[in-house]
Write a structure and sequence with these properties.
The chain is mainly alpha-helical and 124 residues long. The chain is 52% helix and 6% strand. The longest helix has 32 residues.
Length: 124
């Protein structure tokens, strides 16, 4: 008698059916437990909804800061232009103490003329 290269069929249809029935029962138990939890939390939640406060009733046209940028490149160019105008123009930093802002080329000329100030020296 020749040898067979075929594996015997040991699949149990009854076992597969019992496994499917077990899975369906487990699913039914989980769904029932979830339904009971939802019912419990629905009954336990407070029924009285608080009234809306005056602050919540006010309509706000623009959101509070910080807001998202609509056009980032334009905003960046504006910041750079403001910085350049501050660096290239004259202005007061603190008028009472006599601290002014001067353009960078003028500040370099003043430092070359007077020298670098000592840290302990008072400002003129």
């Amino acid at each position: 008698m020749p040898e067979r290269d075929v594996q015997a069929d040991n699949t149990s249809v009854r076992g597969i059916l019992w496994s499917a029935v077990g899975l369906l029962l487990a699913l039914a138990v989980c769904m029932a437990a979830l339904g009971l939890l939802v019912h419990y939390y629905h009954r336990a939640s407070p029924r009285d909804i608080p009234t809306i406060s005056v602050l919540e009733q006010q309509r706000q046209d623009t959101p509070p800061s910080p807001r998202l940028e609509v056009n980032s490149p334009a905003a960046g160019a504006e910041v750079i232009a403001q910085g350049r105008s501050r660096l290239q123009g004259y202005g007061w930093v603190d008028r009472q103490q006599g601290i002014a802002r001067v353009p960078l080329p003028r500040a370099r000329a003043i430092i070359l003329q007077r020298g670098w100030p000592d840290p302990g020296q008072a400002l003129p």
